[in-house]
Amino acid sequence: MKLKTYKTELEAIQSLRNLFLQETNFQIRYDSCHGRGWTDSYLLALDDREIGYGSIKGQEIEDRDTVFEFYVMHPFRKRASHIFSELIAASGANLIECQSNDLLLASMLYEFSQKINADVVLFEDHVVTEYAIPGMVFRSRKEGDFIFEHEVEPIGEYVLELEGEVVATGGYGLHYNMPFADLYMEVKENCRGKGFGSFIVQELKKECYLAGRVPAARCWIQNQASRATLCKAGLKVSGFMLKGAIKNTNR
Known about the structure:
The protein is an alpha+beta fold. The protein has helices spanning 10-24, 32-35, 80-91, 103-112, 196-210, 224-232; strands at residues 3-8, 40-46, 49-57, 66-72, 95-99, 113-125, 136-140, 158-162, 165-173, 180-187, 214-220, 235-246. The protein has 2 domains: 3-120 and 241-246, Gcn5-related N-acetyltransferase (GNAT) (Aminopeptidase), CATH 3.40.630.30; 128-233, Aminopeptidase, CATH 3.40.630.30.
């Protein structure tokens, strides 16, 4: 049986990628890279049977140097290491970036790479919270609202209003794999440390579910305040973004 790895179009791997999304069943951070044309797709075939795929993106978008998706159908996973080495050879990739909850690619990361590090924490919803802040109003942002200057996140479609002042904004991104949505929020600097962040995340979760989406989130690993805010609002850590440099395999 001969293994073949060849570059192809995104449409050619879509049915296999649907199996990958069904199996993983969590928010894929780089899902939108495919639709934006930022990826190279590779079909993996044994003789003439398609058994998996690999996707390559760039740390710099124009440079396709990073394996970030790798899927092999279950009956062929005993050969996953050999198949992955062939993908590296065909693509010329020298980096791997994956979510730790993507167990197949994470196992390849640990086998094939070095200098592994994590920079982002991933979150999934866990429990329902029912925090209440007297006088606090959660509502959609309106034209004419005076919005404080944001330092990191975009101005969201929802706001927290306290005594007529907007003290936080937030929203959720829909450029991820269905049914997931990515929460974001920012609290006015002089209003932080009062539970406003957890309250707006709690309410944003409700809006996600009403829209038929499942809330998820992420933050930089060093951002202890954001991690605490998300956990207090009922989310839990589901994984980490891992990166590693592929070792010289002497191919």
